[in-house]
Amino acid sequence: IRDFCLSRGLGDVYKRQVGKAVKMAGMMNVPVIGLVENMSYLKCPDCGKEIPVFGESRVEETAAKFGLRVLGRVPVDPEIARAADEGKIEALPGEWLAEAAEQVEKL
Length: 107
Prior knowledge:
The chain is of the alpha/beta class. It contains four helices and five strands; from the N terminus they run E-H-E-E-E-H-E-H-H. The longest helix has 15 residues, at 13-27. The mean pLDDT is 84.
């Protein structure tokens, strides 16, 4: 795969990591198609409210800094983690990666 998406970790460290990854990709002539914010929020199982457990998102700000698009926000969810570990992420219902998938399909 030549193109890739970047993901955030916890706290402000992710901004530095995104910057390093974008720089590295540029040095390798690998286009970055956008950012996917991992662990973006926790969805309340009772009311559906999105709770920013790691603080308010800064993914839009970070994407703008590097001239990138936000391709998705992945919630904190044990089912997502399990499906990813099993290589079955595409089998889960949810639109949180729809834009990322669409961009990858265009490659």
